[in-house]
Amino acid sequence: MRESQLQQEDPMDRYKRENRRLQEASMRLEQENDDLAHELVTSKIALRNDLDQAEDKADVLNKELLLTKQRLVEAEEEKRKQEEETAQLKEVFRKQLEKAEYEIKKTTAIIAEYKQICSQLSTRLEKQQTASKEELEVVKGKMMTCKHCSDIFSKEGTLKLVAISREDQGIEPDDEKDSLKKQLRELELELAQTKLQLVEAKCKIQELEHQRGALMNEIQAAKNSWFSKTLNSIKTATGTQPLQPPQATQPPKEST
Q1: How many CB atoms lie within 10 A of CB 169?
Q2: 139 exposure class (CB count in 10 Å sphere: 0-12, 13-18, 19+)
């Protein structure tokens, strides 16, 4: 029945209907083609954008890698320089420490020697004072036994005011009195020289002790300076802030 209907239908109508169907199919295919082309273009644009972003990110990463390598080389060079500087500082500090220790030993030996000299001088001074007193007592005893001297000197050794003229005495100046006065002057001069030597020795001891204190301060300052430089070098090499150097502790001053 369908075939008969088709045979009975006008061929023109059939062709028109077939044409419409083909046109609709063609339009549908063209629409699908346009959609696929648009999707393809959109995908290409997205892929291009992703590729550009990936290339930009790769460039940034390459630059960062080169910068990191350069920083690593600089850090290694700085580390090597810091190690060399630290070694030099250690050597300089060791030499200064050895020199300061030698100076301290030398100063201590000199101070001990001067203290021994002062002790000897003090003992000698005491002995000389004792000997001078004994000699003075002997001289006073001789003066008291002498008739002419007892008239001139008192028991304390002071001169007496005599109103007797030299013509009335009828005696000449006694050589013994001159010798005694000369001995007294020599003893007083020797005593004064001994006291002067003692004072000079004490002054020298004070000066040496002051130098010893200055050397101790220099050693402490050198230790603190080396410690501060070492810490700063280590902190600089590791990229952190340097610590503040410790305050230099002053050693107690020795009493003079």
Answers
A1: 11
A2: buried
Q: Which tokens is 58 given?
A: 């790769």
CA distances to 29, 44, 55, 200 from 41, rounded to whole Å, are 18, 5, 21, 109
- One digit per residue, the tens of pLDDT, for the chain of length 256 reads 777 776 676 778 778 888 999 999 999 999 999 999 999 999 999 999 999 999 999 999 999 999 999 999 999 999 999 999 989 988 998 898 898 888 888 888 888 887 888 888 888 888 888 887 887 787 777 767 776 666 665 655 555 544 344 444 444 446 766 777 777 778 778 777 877 877 887 787 777 878 778 877 877 777 777 767 767 766 666 654 444 444 444 444 444 3
Instruction: Give the Cα separation of 179 and 171 in Å (integer).
Output: 17
Q: What's 1's DSSP letter?
A: -
Beta bridge partners of 153: 159
- Collapse the DSSP code of 246 into the 3-class scheme (helix H, G, I; strand E, B; otherwise coil) and give the result: coil
Distance CA 202, CA 171 (A): 50
User: Please, where are the H alpha helices in the chain?
Assistant: 2-8, 11-145, 147-152, 166-169, 175-238
pTM of the predicted protein model:
0.35
In whole angstroms, give the CA distance from residue 78 to residue 81. 5
Place of tokens 């036994």: 145
